[in-house]
Amino acid sequence: MPRNDLDAAWMPFTANRSFKAAPRLLSRADGMLYWTPEGREVLDATAGLWCVNAGHNRRQITEAITRTATSLDFAPTFQMGHPLMFEAASRIAGVTPPGLDRIFFTNSGSESADTALKIALAYHRANGQPQRTMLIGRERGYHGINFGGLSVGGIGANRKQFGPLLGNVDHLPHTHLPSNRFARFQPEHGVELADALTGLVQLHGADSIAAVIVEPVAGSTGVLVPPVGYLEKLRALCDEHGILLIFDEVITGFGRLGTPFAAERFGVTPDLLTMAKGLTNAAVPMGAVAASEAIYRTVVENAPPGIELFHGYTYSGHPLACAAAIATLDIHRDEELPARARAIEPEWREAVHSLRDRPGVVDIRDAGLIAGIELEPFAGRPAERAARIMQHCFDNGLLIRTTADTIALSPPLILERTHIDRIVTTLGEAISAAT
Ligand code: PLP
Questions:
Q1: Does the CB atom of residue 142 touch ligand 1 within 6 A?
Q2: In 3D, which of 406, 370, 371, 373 has the Cα closest to residue 387?
Q3: What CATH number labels 16-54+336-433?
Q4: What is the pTM of this model?
């Protein structure tokens, strides 16, 4: 039997024991703010979990969900359909990079990663190259926690409890170089790290590799921004060797980098693009994969009559999620959220880099409205310094996120100058106090 109100829930990616001893609860949200159950205001510098890009509790979205819930609670999308699913897919195709117009719905970023990997495998099989089965990820990459995404992911701690995972997988090196410390936006050094793909091609044979999956900006392992020319080079090598390129845009999508997707900001278009989080402003779970026309046509048109792709979720294209996605895209369009993010980005960048002389700060990285502040760990006590800073911020009305000893910031895109000042002031004090 649970011992108190908190005991029954086994919390995800949480130190359950210490959390339940001293819980941090959020019970209400609006705009840039959360409130605790006691009514204490907390400024959200993380857009929830990289997902509430349009700010909290947007009436347009909640009304669309409510309206839909009372008219079409659910409709199956296996061999059936409902209008909102097709409308949502068309609207998403309106903001994805040109050519990535075929939208497959999932319910999360993890499901999107596994879906994209499976579509890549199905594509090669339909294209007469069934031997292309190897999947290439990257060290320090995060593609969610299902078996496919975990296998191509590069976070040791996430993998080690779960055995060998998928076998036919290899990894590129990560792009974090000490010579790039305190770079602003894209670092100068490291384009040659993409050449590791040539090494993997030589090792495994080009015609055995199905796809390469990377986050344009790696978020979960501490905000790793691609060096100048790196993504372009990966794209060129994939083209040269017939390998599909997948961008995991679960956090970089929906305006976070000042463009609808990071692909546009970096001028590199993948063959498959995964999304989730900001797609519905996080009001209802939803993810999606955008596939190129060539991939869709190859899989669908080369299949025998009947179902072409044996994949899907009961809740793929759930009506409530579709309604939320359409309303979210309306807000992004009407309020020009990507442009708004782009306009405030220089102020954001200067503000976060102003923290460089605080004690223990060893690097600061930024991309769009994302920032990573890396700290020297306390000797023999990894992650404790960042955890103390996080608690100090929360006690003083600021929500930040930490990953090991890096602070990751990703505020809602409706951020204003006063919010930037509050974030930097409170965080600066917290960093100075954690010595
Ligand atoms: N991919 C990336 C790049 C992410 O950052 C995340 C979550 O943070 C995921 C996938 C997993 O998304 P979800 O937690 O919705 O499954």
A1: yes
A2: 406
A3: 3.90.1150.10
A4: 0.98
